[in-house]
Structure formats: C-alpha cells, structure tokens
TrEMBL record:
It comes from Corallococcus sicarius. Keywords: DNA damage, DNA repair, Hydrolase. Signal peptide: none annotated. The keyword Cell inner membrane does not apply. This is Putative 3-methyladenine DNA glycosylase. InterPro entries: Formyl_transferase-like_C_sf, MPG, MPG_sf. One of its GO terms (biological process) is base-excision repair. Belongs to the DNA glycosylase MPG family.
Length: 194
C-alpha cells in the first residue's frame, strides 16, 4: 500500500481530522515496524483558534505548523511527553491535527497502551527527531484503513485547553465510539463546578 498523498492533508483541519479516523499510522525504526489504527484526534484550526499553538503566531516551535501540509509536528509537553500532530490546510494557516489514540495493529504487544498522545508516542518511538518529517517517508507515514462510518464518529470538546475560552468548548475532538483505546471516558453531561 502507498502512503496517503500529501494532498490528503492540504485541507481544513476538521476535514482531515474526520478522515484520519481509521487510517493506519506506520513508524519504522530501531524497534522495527509499528502500526496503529487512529481512533481519536483533535483538530486545531490555526491562529484564530486560541487552543492552538499557532495562536501565538509564527515562532521557532510553530513554524512547521505554518509550512506545507503533510508534515509531522512533534513537540514535548511537561518536559516528558511527546505529542504527534499532522500539519494540515494551506501554507500560512497554522493548522494541525493531534493524534490522541491508536488501536494496536502490528508490532505492538497487547500490554502497550496507546490511549493518549504521550503513550502512543512512547510506544511507537515518536520523538522530536520526527518533527517536520514528511508523512509520506519510508520511516513515518499513514496508510488508508477501514473507513469509519459516520454513525460511529463521536465529537466533543478537546482535552486540556480550558485556557482557550469559548474555543475550549468547540467539538473539535473526534473519536470512534466503542473503541477501547480512546484516551479518556467522555460524559455526555457537562461538568459542574463545585
């Protein structure tokens, strides 16, 4: 199978996020070939999206987000967890989709958890060395997978972006209903503050 073409990513982040569900993320490196089916993502729409890293404008860290679509944006959070994103949309927009959870397919043992962006990066061996890498390369690419029917796609607010005001409530997190690999239980009821 051939990697998804770079044109796949050159669309609005929400469209790409939806279409990423069910695709296969492939990492080939010192640990061999590791493959996971994407079951949870979050879309970040660009500079206007206050939850996005690009909302601070063009910086050394976010430069890749403003570059051509179809590149990896990998960053370190809390000084210990890597997060893997795919850059989307047109150059200059600053949009990306965070891959939050995978269902193990190949090269992963049953005990290796992939339910969360930091966990999946650790298990797949994704790190800052993958930042800016093209997503059609031999060592890092995505393949078409079994399409996820719309009836199985759930949508809700992104996780951990409460600082973003109204943008925090936007339903830009998408996941496959019923997957045991989604990173966090989602309640349909809004949380109440004490």
């Amino acid at each position: 199978m051939s990697p998804l073409p770079l044109a796949f990513y050159a669309r609005p982040a929400l469209e790409v996020a939806r279409d990423l569900l069910g695709t296969l993320l492939v990492v080939e490196g010192v640990n061999g070939r590791r493959v996971g089916r994407i079951v949870e993502v979050e879309a970040y729409l660009g500079e206007q999206d206050l939850a996005s890293h690009s909302s601070k404008g063009l910086t050394a860290r976010t430069e890749v987000m403003f570059g051509p679509a179809g590149r990896a944006y990998v960053y370190l959070i809390y000084g210990m967890h890597h997060c893997f994103n795919v850059v989307t949309d047109a150059e200059g927009v600053g949009a990306a989709v965070l891959v939050r959870a995978l269902e193990p397919v190949e090269g992963l043992s049953p005990g290796e958890r992939t339910d969360g962006p930091g966990r999946l990066c650790r298990v797949l061996g994704l790190n800052l060395n993958h930042n800016r890498q093209r997503l059609d390369s031999d060592g890092l690419h995505l393949l078409s997978g079994a399409p996820v029917p719309e009836a199985l796609v759930e949508r809700g607010p992104r996780i951990g972006v409460e600082y973003a005001g109204a943008w925090a409530a936007e339903p830009f997190r998408l996941w496959v209903r019923g997957s045991g690999h989604v990173s966090r239980f989602v309640s349909r009821r809004p949380r109440r503050r004490p």
